[in-house]
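G., before I forget:
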Amino acid sequence: MAAYRSIRNLDWVLLLVAVAIAGLGILQIYSATIDTAWRSAWWKQAVFLASGLLLMWITSRIDYHTLLGQAPVLYAASLALLVLTPLVGSLVWGSRRWIPVGFGFKFQPSEFVKLVLVLLIARYLAELKSDRLEGRDLWKLGLLVGIPCGLVAAQPDLGTALTYASIAVAGVFFGGIRWQHALLLGAAVIVLMPAGWFVLKDYQKARLETFLDPMKDPTGKGYQVIQSKIAVGAGGIWGRGVARGSQTQLRFLPVAHTDFIISAFAEEHGFVGILVVFGLYFLLLMQIVQNAQAAPDRAGMFICMGVCSLLLFHLLVNAGMAVGRMPVTGIPLPLMSYGGSSMLSVFMMLGLVNSVRLRRFAA
Amino acid sequence: MRYLRAEREPDSLPARTLFRDEAKFAAGKIAAFQYLIVAVFVFLALGYWDLQVLNEEFYSEKAQQNQIKSLPILAPRGKILDRDGRVIVDNHESYRLILSRENLRPAHLRPIALGLNLDPGELEAKVRRYSKQPTYFAIPLKEELSLDELAFVEAFLGPSGFPELELIKSQYRIYPKGGLAAHLVGYVGEISDSELNSPDWAHHNPGDIIGKTGVERYYNEHLTGVDGQRQVRVDNRMNTREVLGIKEAVPGRDLRLTIDLDLQVVAELAMENRRGAVVALDPRSGEVLALVSHPSFDPNRFSSRITAREYASLVQDPYRPLFNRALQAQLAPGSTFKPIMALAALESGAIDDDFTVHCSGGATWYGRFFKCHRRGGHGTVNLKTAIAQSCDVFFYAVGNRLGIDTIAHYAELMGLGNRTGIDLPGEKEGVVPSTRWKIRTQREKWYAGETISVAIGQGALTVTPLQLAHAIGGLAMGGVFMRPHVVRPEKPEPPVRKADFNPDNVRKVVDGMCAVVNGWGTASASRIPGIEMCGKTGTAQLASNDLLRLKNSSDWHDNAWFVGFAPPENPEIVVAVLWENGEHGDMAAPIARDVIKAHFDKKQRMERLGRQPASLASAWLQPPDPARSAR
C-alpha cells in the first residue's frame, strides 16, 4: 500500500503547472513592485510558495477520509475564526479580513474556510448515497454554506462570500439537483437580486454600477477598471517587456501585485503571455478534473470538483474583472496574486486533490 | 468516523465497492463541466483578444496620455515702470496650487478645502463650473500659498494624500503699498466666466490671469508673456519621473508709463484722505503725469487672495473705492467751466473787450432769480475780473448771449461731452447739454432759463476730471488738444482736435486765470513764488438725485474743483483737482499747487544736479519681499 502513496505518485503535472503559474506570479510581483514599499513582496511570495508545497505534501499524506471525518470540527473552528476576525482583525482598505499573526504576517481565515467548505460539502453529498438531492438537502446545504457566507460578507468581503457559494453550487450540480429545484433556485435568485441591492454597501453598489458603465465616474470608482483595461490593451500581442509596462511601473494600475496582477502581466507579456498563463490554468483545471474522474469514491470526486470549480470561479471573476467583463471584487487570482493565505490555501486544496489521487487504487 | 472505519477494515468490501462504483455516477456531469471550463477560457481569452489585439492602438494611446503631461511654465508679466524707469509694479515668485481634474476624487474636495481655508461649497461650485471643459484643464485652487498652506499641501502630495493637487511655481504682482496709483495701474485676477464669454478675451482659457482694470487691463496683451511648457513623464501621483522637453516661457514686456512717480506721490499726499481725483497732464503732448482717485484700495489684495467677502465690502462701500473718479466721476464742473465760456464768448463775437456787467449779487433771467456766489455782488466787472473773482452774474449774461447750442459747440470743441480717448479702460464721456441733446434724451424742448445754469457749469453739464484737465490744457495751448495717454504712443500723434482760436482771445482768458491765483482772485492763497500758475476754482452743487442717495451730512456739501496750469504760455503741466464735498474751489487749489510746484522743483533740481534727484516715491514701492518669495 505504501508504494502507490510514495512521492512519485503525486500528480506531477498538476504540481509543475501550479509551480509554473506561481513562478510567473512571483516574476510579475517582482516587476510590479520595483521601487515601491512592496518591493520585498516577491521573495515573501517565494517563501509562501515553498511553504505551500510543503503543506501540499503534508495534506496529500493525510487520508482525505480522515479529514472528511473531522469536517464538522473544522467547520465549527472556521465559524469561530470568522466570528473572531472582525473583533481582532486589522482594518485594511475599509474591511477587516486579516488576523495579525506576528512577524508582520497577517492571516486571512476566509481563505482557509474555502478548504473546509469543500470538505464539508463533499462529506454531506457523499453520505447521501443517492443520485438525487431532496429539497431538505438543499436547505441544509444552504444553511451550512450560508452561515460562513454571511460572516464573510459582513467583513465586508462579498467576493469571498461568492466563492463559497460557487463551491456549493458546484456541489449540488454534481450531487444531482433536480431540474425543478434548479429552476426554482434560479428564479429565486433573480427575484431576490433587486432586494439584495439594498443590502449591498455603497462601495459594492458603486462597483456594480461601474461594471455596467465604467465611464460614469472615470477618476473615482471607474478608475480601477479603466486603468486595468488600458494596461491590458497597451500590452498588445507581445507585451511591453518585464518591468517596462508604463501602467504598471508608473502606478496607474492599482494594486498591480494583488488583485490586478493579471492586468500587469498582460501589459508586460501581451496576449501571447496571457495565452500561456491561460493554457497553464487550463491544464491545471483539467488535471484536477482527471483526478476527479479517477477518484476512488464519491467523496473524492466531490473534493476534486469542489476545488476545480472554486479555482475556475476565481479565475473567471478575477481575470474577467481585469478586462471589464466582470464586476470588481477583491478576490485574488489563485497562485499568482500576492498573498500568503491564498497561496497556502490553494496548495492545501491541491494537496487534497493529491490525497484523493494517491488513494485512487485503494481497492 | 465511518470513513476511518472504512479505511481500517479492508475486508468490508461491499461498502467500499459501492463507493468506488459511485465515483463514476457523475461522469456525464463532469464531462459537461469540462465544456464549462472551455467556455470560461474562451470567454476570457476573447476579452483579452478584444483589448490586446483588436484595440491595442487605442489603449496604447491611452497609456501614453496617462504618463505624458504638459505642465505649464507660467510666463511672468512685464513690469510697469514710471517715466523715469522706476518700477511701479513688480513680480515675485511664489506657488500656486492647482487641482488636476483627471485625478480628482470628489470625496477629497472637502478635506482639501478645509486644509486650505477655502469654503467647501465654493470649491464644489467651482468644480461644477469646469464640468464642460476637457478634463486636462486643471482648476486653479489657490495663489500665493502661505507657509502653513504650503505645509499642508506638501504633507498630502505624498502616497496617502490627494493625487489631484499640483504645485506650480508662479509669478505674482507686487503693487505699491497703500493703494498708490491703484486706479491707474489696476490689478490682475483670474478670468471670470463673463469675461470668458466675451469676444475681448476670446483667446483665453479658464484660470488665466488677466488685467482686470487700469493699465493692467488696457495693456494686458503687452504685459502678458507666452506661457511655456514642460513635457514630462509622470506617475499616477503626478511625480515627475522624466523631463521629455521644455519650451521656455517668454516673459511679458515691461511697460513704461508717462506717469511721474514723484508727482503721483505728491498728488496722493496732497489729497490726504479726501474723496476726489487729481489728473496732471502735459498739455503739449497729452502725457499723463499723475492720475489719482481717492479713496483708494490695495490692489495687492486682488492679485490672488481676495475673498468674496472682502470684494463685496469694497463693492458695497458707499464711497466706492474701486470707482476711478479721475475718468469716471461725471460731475458738474461749476465755475471751472467759466474759462471755456469766456473763450467761447470771445471767439463767437458774442462779447467784445469792452463788455462789462454790473453784478449786484444776482440777476433775474426768464422769470427766475439767479444769485451770484458773492452775496454783496462784484460791482461792475469785465472779463478778467469775472474770471478772477468768478462772477456768476457776468457769465449768466454771457451765456444768455451765446445760447445753449453755441456753448455746446465750444464745449465739445474743447473735448467735453466725449471720451478723451485715454489709454485706460472705463472712461466716461460726461454730458454737454444742447437743444438736440435734450430732445434726444428727454423728448422736451430746451428752455432758455436752463442755459443760465449751464453758463456757470451747473445744470445738466457734467465733466470728468480728466476731461477738464484736457480741455483747459488744450485751451491754454491755444486750441491744440492732444489725446491724453499714460503710455507714449510708438509714433508721435497729431492733435486730436485743433481749434484756430485767436491768440489774443486765448491770452485774455489766460490772463483772467492768472489773476485767479496771482492777482486778487479766488485762489490767491495758492500762489507759488517764482512760478506763474494760472487756474480756476469751481464750486459745484450736487445734482439733486445725488442728494437723495447720500445720507451723511458732509456729503451734502458742494464739490470743490480746481484746474490750474503753468506757465501761462505753452504750459508744461495742467492739473485738474476734484474734491468731493470740499465745499469751495479754493480748498482744492492747494492740491494742484503742490503738484505743479513739485513738477517745477524737480525740474530745477534736475537742472542743478544734472541727474535724476532722489525719489520721493521709494516709501510706497514694495521691494520684492524675501519672506514671501524665498520658499
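Chain A touches chain B through 63 residues (CB under 8 Å). The longest strand of chain A covers residues 95-102.

More on Monday.
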